[in-house]
Amino acid sequence: QVQLVESGGGLVQAGGSLRLSCAASGRTNSNLGMGWFRQAPGKEREFVATISWRSGSTYYADSVKGRFTISRDNAKNTVYLQMNSLKPEDTAVYYCAARYSSMWRDPKNYNYWGQGTQVTVSS
Questions:
Q1: In the beta sheet, which residues pair with residue 33?
Q2: Which residue spans within the chain are E strands per DSSP?
Q3: Given CA atoms 69, 70, 71, 77 in this order, what sign does their dihedral have?
Q4: Residue 70 falls in which region: left (phi positive, over 0), alpha (psi -120 to 50) or beta
Q5: Calpha distance 85→17 (Å, rounded)
Q6: In the chain, which residues have pLDDT < 70?
Q7: Which of 2, 15, 31, 73 is most buried (most C-beta within 10 Å)?
Q8: What is the Cα 42 distance to its own chain's centre?
Q9: Integer distance in angstroms from the first to the last C-alpha of the chain?
């Protein structure tokens, strides 16, 4: 089993920055891929970014490319999401997730989920 704990959310003005962290514990291994998803009120959960634990390869949703950066620290079993130039439409609960599948877009392919952390961007 893998446990995931997110932190770093908060309230910021448009144009500001936040850094989210996801600490993984339990039976983690290099076959896992890590992802960030978000869910705004009244909307379904959407993909934000993903990273391969083994290779470090990354992919981003078009809406966050050039603004968000996903990274990982293998020694600390921690994944980060650096969010710059935040917009009001980025407001959502952000979830960290882990998968064994190489199909990273669909949240149903993720095996483990954190509890979420709230990000609110004011205009």
A1: 52, 99
A2: 2-7, 10-13, 18-26, 33-39, 46-52, 58-60, 68-73, 78-83, 92-99, 110-113, 117-122
A3: positive
A4: beta
A5: 6
A6: none
A7: 2
A8: 20
A9: 40
